[in-house]
Amino acid sequence: MRKQLEKAGSGETLRDVLARIGPTELAPFLREGAGFEIQVNAPNVKMERIGGSGLRYRFTETGLVAEVAVEFSAELGTAVQAVTLTNEGQAPTPPLRALHAFYLPLEVKVKDAPYACGFGGGLTNGYYPPRAYRPEEVSFGKARPWEPDNPGFTRWWVAQRFYTLSSGPDGRSANPNLPLMLVGWQIPDGEVGLWAALEWSGRWEMQFGADRDWRFYFRGGPKVQNMVLEPGETIRLPRMHVGVYGGAAATRADGFNRIRRYVAEALVPDVEGRRPWPFIAYSHWFGIEEKVTAEILRPQVDRAAELGLEYFEIDAGWYGGSTENFANGVGNWERVDEDKFPGGLEPFAEYVRSKGMRFGLWFEPERGRLGSDWVTQHPDWYWNAGSPVNFHLNLTQRQVQDYLIQTLSTWIERLDIRWLRWDNNQAHGPFWDKIDPTGKIQFAYLEGLYRVFDTLLERFPNLMIDNCAGGGQRIDFGTLRRAGTMVISDHAEDPHICRIMQTAGSRVFPGNLMNSSIYVGERDGEALLGPLELISRMAGSITLCGHIAKWSRRQTRLVRKYLDGYRSFRHLLMKDFYALTPYPRSADDWDVVEFLDPTTGEAVIMAYRMRGDERIRTVTPKRLNPAKTYEVVDPFSTAKPRQMSGRTLMERGLRFVLAPDSAGVRHLRPVG
Q1: Minimal CA–CA distance to 512: which of 431, 446, 571?
Q2: Per-residue b/e over 464-489, b at no fewer than 16 CB within 10 Å?
Q3: 438 with 225: CB under 8 angstroms?
Q4: DSSP label at 615?
Q5: Pairing of strands 64-73, 78-87
Q6: Residue 64, phi-psi category: left (phi > 0), alpha (psi -120 to 50), beta (remainder)
Q7: Rounded to an integer, what is the distance from CA 34 to the centroid of its chain?
Q8: Do the beta carbons of residue 294 and residue 348 sit within 8 Å?
Q9: All structural domains of the chain
Q10: Contacts with 540 (C-beta within 8 Å, 6 or more apart), sequence order
Q11: Segments of 188-294 assigned E as strands
């Protein structure tokens, strides 16, 4: 079950909690502070602590009051801060130019060799290596210890002293970056650091940088532009998830694994009464698209059952008006296309269940098309930003939220939907800007969106929400707190691009979330889907798509063999992750990664080769149990496993021999 957080002590700030639950070496680097920062366009404004229980602050001359609540998990080394702002004055507040939902001043200087790491968002790139999930690390350290004699003017006086990540103008949180950052710095025998992530699906910014005195800070929050609160108005800033890591012999990988463990054990919701798992599924979209019909899909159901798949999802195109273009029918959420599904979806959903699979269905509720039922019947429910055909559902309205909840609840009950793919292809930004250029509209909109998600999950504990946004463009701790999986990208074809997105994103996300699809077109030859294509999706969940029913018996047996091998080690994809080779920068570079259960010592290592002249690579696994004997198993072969000690594996390494455009997997199972 999902691990719960504890409430911090009365009066404990974010800094206090992090100092208490973090490594002892971290506390001296955490300066005192409220844990957040509000920048106001007005002179002489000061933030003052209000006496009494809890954490309350007053901003003088503004009427603005902030109330702070902090929760934490000492086991997972993470704290969550929630800040509520209220205008208790009689006049509007001065413009608020920056809302840093967390702000941590640090006693870190350049001589400590500080660094920051961010990741690309869930983009759909057709080049290698893609921008999607690509780790980016910057360092402020120098080759020798350095500290400016005169902080106001040094030979670095023109330097940019900060590293900034932000969302783009379209308003979706993971385009172009993930709203997550890891920072750290050196201590004599290792390193310590922090990570932070926003529970926020709108525009945002995070920054790690130095003040004029060259002492560093770490901050982040939603993007606004001179936002004003009216008298009596309240907004809730995004919940900030902030974690700690480090100590003697610690590395960056320890920080990444702290994030993975928190997401796997405490953030994402339970599915069917247990923690989510890396699953194997079918979705019709990549390969069939709008041509979907019950007649075409029934043979796919039979083949999916033969392969032992766990979910079967009908993607876009099941509703009225979607024959030529799936987008033309968005807004027809109460009307099935009877030409495609005579008798409705109920008989088909029952057929899926009769084959032992869970049924899934696609929706894109936040978009409406001109002429669709909802846009026609409820024009006051939609925003228009100037497009002649595209409209945006206004989830700031309670009645709109209620109607959407009831509509989706009806479908879930009628069809016993277990996988609800919630897509978001349309950018929010232009609509928000037209309604409210200050950005305040985001708060009410996202509160409404989260209410819909939360209500559905409370009503239907067997439901898994699939977070999709034109691929993975809305990946943040707000959507992930409510999603059992996510579409990492709309790129579903090139195995190397799909693989590197999974292995890169796995640095911070567990395997249930890293769901990658395999495109199977109607005319695709069987040679286009072999071991490379399958293993290249095995660092996370796997979704087969399109025309799998056309496979020969031989091809079906091949796919089943590899899926069965995947089942033998997929539980490890929820555990710790180690990159055994640097992130690939060209087609000549190998990509070798390890997933390890730190409790049992069991591990799986995946090796991938594109091109280049290096056909043999020896890698040293991380953190095995040196005293144990391991079986080294090829999960796709019947060959007798080798046995090696953990010490030998970590000292001498594990050897892979791969041809160009191929992959290999070794399952390291402790046996004694």
Answers
A1: 571
A2: bbbbbbbbbbbbbbbbbbbbbbbbbb
A3: yes
A4: -
A5: antiparallel
A6: beta
A7: 28
A8: yes
A9: 6-267 (2.70.98), 280-574 (3.20.20.70), 576-670 (2.60.40.1180)
A10: 278, 488, 502, 505, 506, 511, 512, 513, 514, 515, 516, 573
A11: 190-199, 204-210, 216-222, 234-236, 239-248, 280-283
Within 13 A of 557's CA, how many CA atoms are on the CB side? 3
Q: Which residues pair with 98 in a beta bridge?
A: 39
Name the phi and psi angles at 408, rounded to 5.
Answer: -65, -40
| CA-closest candidate to residue 517, choices 330, 210, 667, 309 | 309
Q: Each residue of 157-170: pLDDT tens digit? A: 446 789 999 999 99
How far apart are alpha carbons 162 and 159 in whole angstroms?
A: 9
Residues 85, 238 contacting (CB under 8 angstroms): no
Residue entry with tokens 């869970």: 358
Render pLDDT for 480-536 as a digit per residue (tens, 0 to 9): 999 999 999 999 999 999 999 999 999 999 999 999 999 999 999 999 999 999 999
In angstroms, rounded to a whole number, what is the distance separating the alpha carbons of residues 444 and 624? 48
Could you tell me which residues come within 8 angstroms of residue 498 by beta carbon, excluding any fewer than 6 positions away? 489, 491, 492, 516, 517, 518, 536, 537
Residues near 490 by beta carbon (within 8 Å), at least 6 away in sequence: 124, 470, 471
Q: Which of 414, 301, 275 is nearest to 356 (CA)?
A: 301
**How many other β-carbons are positioned within 10 Å of the β-carbon of residue 506?**
24
> What single string gives the DSSP state of each residue in 519-585?
---TT--GGGSSHHHHHTTTTS-EEEES-GGG--HHHHHHHHHHHHHHHHHGGGGGSEEEESSPPP-
Q: What span, in angstroms and rounded, lies between the C-alpha atoms of 265 and 432?
A: 34
- The Cα–Cα gap between 119 and 260 comes to 14
Element (H, E) at 453: helix 441-459
Short-list 428, 434, 435, 411, CA closest to 366: 428
SS3 per-residue string spanning 487-535: ECCCCCCCHHHHHHHHHHHCCCCCCCCEEEEECCCCCCCHHHCCHHHHH
- Asked if 245 contacts 195 with a C-beta cutoff of 8 angstroms, the reply is yes
The pTM assigned to this predicted structure is 0.97
For 212-244, what is each residue's pLDDT tens digit?
888 999 999 999 999 999 999 999 999 999 999
Helices (H), 171-327: 252-262, 285-288, 294-306
Residue type, 562: Y
Judge whether 150 and 499 are in contact, CB under 8 Å.
Answer: no
